[in-house]
Sequence to fold (234 residues):
Amino acid sequence: MIGIHDMGGFHHLGDVHPDDDAVFGGPWQERTFAMQMVGAANGLWTSDEFRHVIERMPPAHYLETEYFQHWLTALEELFTRHGIFTRAEWADRLDKVRSGTAPDLGFGDTAEGQRLLDAMIHLAHTGAELEHPAEAPAEFAVGQRVRAVTRAYPGHTRCPRYIWEKTGTVLAVHAEFAYPETTAARAGENPERVYSVRFDGRDLWGEDAEPHTNVTVDLWQSYLSDVDSTGKAL
Fold:
């Protein structure tokens, strides 16, 4: 979808100041990360479904909040969407936490807690198992020039706007992976080939691009079209 989250190539957003010594900015971020991992590891949602909820945040709210607050917004939506609790229960718990009257919920069943922990650790270390053996020949080859299509799709997509209609070169051909646009909508995995495509900075940003700049993007086959020797789409 076209939204404020798709910010690649925007100007005047300020410098990035990473803190390489801190993984999380506080305990609440650690817990937020854990809740997302537990939900995903146990099949409550897919990673693409989670991303799409964040993409649908109102633009002002998205810009005013930080990274893990985006995650909390998605968790509230997904936990209520899938019946883990109601919005009224969520609001009541928040009120009690803020007032200091929230009871300790404990850890519940120890064996179930350990199963959830093991599933979360496995997902965090290995990622979701979305790769499929290729069942058809690749449509594009290493070294081939390809063009990224315009993907003005209202749902979730992994084709960023700044590469639409830009021409690049295939660097690697991968196996088939679950198609994000359908997994986000719970419409099946529908696996497709994925290609690593390198785009020259001048093709993306024009002649004023920083010299020797290039960007490599992993793209599903549906996001690409063939081009002729002049760079025109076939």
User: Anything to note?
Assistant: The longest strand covers residues 167-177. The two ends are 25 Å apart (CA to CA). The chain has a mean pLDDT of 88.
